Amino acid sequence: MRRFLIVSIFILPVFIVGCATIISGSKQQVSVNSTPENAEVSVKTLGGISVFNGRTPASVTLARKNEYLVTVKLSGYSDQTIQISKSVNTWVIGNLLCGGIPGLVVDGVTGALWNLEPEAIHVALVIAMLDGKSVYYAVLGMHDDNGQLRTLAVPMVPLLN
Question: What is the per-residue pLDDT across 125-152, written as a single tens digit (0 to 9) for each?
Fold first, then answer.
């Protein structure tokens, strides 16, 4: 009886809790940057649920169990969308060494079974073009009275010879 009590108090919790849950947790920080900065950022799950709206540079805490689409927008530039995908967290190997199935179940339920990739996103925004035509734009930018960046795209018209 005494051995059972010792095993259940000290050893059993090791088999119940997943290694990846202990080490990595169920959430992950992802950074989003852009050139130029101060672009709008929206993060949605692949199911379309919005989880973050802000401006670059940004640091977003995301649940590891979902995959996401990150959209970066700035006036005068083409929108850029990047997918954040899941890959298996290497800390899951600890479950195989410490008892297997219960730890894998815990890691799967909490989402700690996964790593989100990429962990750092940097978007180089490209000046917008209309309908794929070779139209070049001059982008004028200035800060308004509230400190917000305002831009204006002006099409460049070729001069006749």
Answer: 888 765 556 667 777 777 778 877 777 7
Is domain 2-128 classified as CATH 2.60.40? Answer: yes
Q: Is the pLDDT score of 73 beyond 90? A: yes
CA distance 41 to 32: 8
Q: Say if CB 34 and CB 124 are below 8 A apart.
A: yes
Residue 140 pairs with which residues in a beta bridge? 152
Q: Which residues are paired to 116 by β-bridges?
A: 86
Give the position of tokens 């179940």.
105
- ∠ CA 130-133-136, nearest 5°, is 75
- Give the span between the Cα atoms of 64 and 62, in whole angstroms: 6
Q: Residue 101: its pLDDT value, please?
A: 60
Neighbour-count burial of 13, counting CB atoms closer than 10 A to its CB (0-12 exposed, 13-18 middle, 19+ buried): exposed
Distance CA 122, CA 29 (A): 14
Reported residue count of the chain is: 161
